[in-house]
């Protein structure tokens, strides 16, 4: 069956041999990967990599790895044709930005969870230790130390600034997540203290 296909290929050269205007040999290295009915596939690869370079790469690879190599070259060549400046790097960069955005959204959600848990813990603590009017002389249970307002505002301002810098420069999202969670925790603790005043 395979031999019959190659006999037909001799009458109809593969896309590579047709573009290069040469006879398609029985052992043509391009024929299994660049069929005659997909001329643009090889045209883009030839334009970006060059036929001789593609031929050399395929000859140096084991047969079982050539299909993956061709798929990779075709993807990169098509991306380069669509975007001559950035090529596939542009697509990768776009996907990386989407990942960073999702990780930042996840960090904000985690910060909100921290804030809600601190508020819930403070509410449970207040419920367990109510202040009775008959025992008004008894000192209330210790409460979390509240943060001075000007210090809290200063901290939040710098935390937000650092978060924006980390996002704009596409730094490791771990730092952005840490800054956001710390900011939420400080807001929650400070808010707990201010409610008791």
From TrEMBL:
Pfam families for this protein: LOB
InterPro entries given in the database record: LOB
Domain LOB, first and last residues per copy: 12-113
Family to which the UniProt record says this protein belongs: Belongs to the LOB domain-containing protein family.
Name of this protein: LOB domain-containing protein 4
Species the sequence originates in: Vitis vinifera (Grape)
